[in-house]
């Protein structure tokens, strides 16, 4: 889960990483009186905001109000700006780059640092980039910071600040269950201070049960998608008429592709995941029904998710919500015979193969 810049900077601040003084507003009426030159930064989950007009500079109260008014509610690459961050303008002498990223191939964090900040790290020549793997069992060691500051040829005082910052940055990476922490640019000010002018923090979304204070509301998600997200379902609304429930992202995507191949239009993507809980199946139906499909397709390959459990969940949902819409089910795998028998006794169509079920649901959806 990608955090907004202001959220990342709050985490930095709590962990001893210097950031500019600033505050967040959702409307121009929340602006504080102008005191010094400021930067007005749109809070969207995209890089390259400056090139897209998402960052403004204010040298007067009028500039500040005009910038906030212009940015709030605007669209930047199809994302709506609902918040802006107002920060003190920095007296920049030099821009650096630093990040700690999770290398999935190496299964360990990697420190990346460069003298070339303020640009995408991919555009920096490889010879100007310092990289160092960090053993997750041993953790961060001071010699890594000394190697990095020597590579970057930092002067002694900035090098000292940089090494201190790296310790804190690694603590953020570990304590916040991050996949990436990035500062670009990391600014050396004319006053000789090292300050994180930006903050990109990507957390492992599976760790959110440990971070109850982190709340992300994506303005591009529909109310139903947000509801599903809050309940732990992978759910996307689409523009078709066949509601889809499947287990596993791969099978769900294959189901959507197969529906499209047979001229069926999916109304949603819902990944039931691996479960052996009737209530989770019932709640999935509640979400799909709120999308108002013409027909519902359930495609289950039973493993962890047993077919008879899903069948009992479908029957429970049918009774609870008084479902009159056509339902077609494909059950294959663990306890499939028992599951199909349960569905048959309750008047619900079921098939052993995906294509049989898809051909049937496309047909019944056309007459609705």
Feature tags:
single chain; 26% strand; D-amino Acid Aminotransferase, Chain A, domain 1; alpha+beta; 6-stranded antiparallel beta sheet; 10 helices; Dna Ligase, domain 1; 3 domains; 4-stranded antiparallel beta sheet; Rossmann fold; 368 residues
Q: What is the CA-CA span between the terminal residues?
A: 39 Å
Strand portion: 25-35%
The CATH superfamily name of the largest domain is Succinyl-CoA synthetase domains
Which H/E pattern describes the elements?
Answer: HEEEHEEEEEEHHEEEHEEHEHEHEHEH
Could you say how many structural domains there are in total? 3
Helical content band: 25-40%
pLDDT < 50 stretches: none
The main pleated sheet reads as:
6 strands, antiparallel
Quick check: average pLDDT? Answer: 94
**Anisotropy-based shape:** elongated
CATH architecture label of the largest domain:
3-Layer(aba) Sandwich
Number of helices: 10
Total strands: the figure is 18
Determine the structural class based on helices, strands and strand pairing.
alpha+beta
State the name of the first-level CATH class of the largest domain: Alpha Beta
Q: Give the oligomer, counting copies of the same chain as homo and different chains as hetero.
A: single chain
């Amino acid at each position: 889960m990608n955090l907004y810049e202001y959220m990342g900077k709050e985490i930095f601040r709590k962990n001893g990483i210097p950031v500019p003084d600033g505050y967040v507003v959702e409307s121009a009426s929340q602006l504080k009186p102008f005191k010094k030159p400021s930067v007005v930064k749109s809070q969207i989950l995209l890089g390259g905001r400056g090139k897209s007009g998402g960052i403004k500079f204010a040298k007067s109260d009028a500039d500040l109000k005009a910038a906030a008014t212009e940015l709030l509610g605007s669209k930047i690459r199809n994302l709506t700006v609902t918040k802006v961050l107002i920060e003190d303008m920095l007296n920049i002498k030099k821009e650096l780059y630093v990040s700690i990223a999770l290398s999935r191939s190496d299964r360990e964090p990697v420190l990346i640092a460069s003298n070339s900040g303020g640009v995408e790290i991919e555009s920096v020549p490889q010879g100007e980039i310092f990289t160092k793997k960090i053993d997750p069992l041993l953790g961060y060691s001071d010699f890594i910071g000394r190697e990095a500051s020597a590579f970057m040829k930092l002067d002694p005082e900035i090098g000292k600040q940089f090494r201190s910052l790296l310790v804190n940055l690694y603590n953020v990476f570990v304590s916040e269950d991050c996949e990436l922490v990035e500062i670009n640019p990391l600014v050396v000010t004319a006053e000789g201070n090292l300050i994180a002018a930006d903050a990109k923090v990507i957390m492992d979304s599976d760790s959110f049960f440990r971070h109850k204070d982190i709340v992300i509301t994506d303005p591009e998600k529909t109310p139903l998608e947000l509801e599903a997200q809050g309940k732990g379902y992978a759910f996307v609304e689409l523009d078709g008429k066949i509601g889809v429930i499947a287990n596993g992202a791969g099978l769900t995507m294959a189901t959507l592709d197969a529906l499209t191949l047979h001229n069926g239009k999916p109304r949603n993507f819902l990944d039931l995941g691996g479960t052996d809980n009737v209530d989770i199946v019932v709640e999935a139906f509640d979400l799909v029904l709120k999308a108002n499909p013409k027909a519902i397709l359930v495609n289950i390959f039973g493993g962890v998710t047993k077919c008879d459990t899903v069948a009992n969940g479908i029957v429970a949902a049918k009774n609870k919500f008084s479902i009159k819409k056509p339902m077609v089910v494909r059950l294959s795998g663990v306890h499939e015979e028992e599951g199909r028998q349960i569905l048959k006794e309750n008047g619900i169509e079921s098939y052993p193969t995906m294509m049989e079920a898809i051909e049937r649901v496309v047909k019944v959806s056309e007459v609705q």
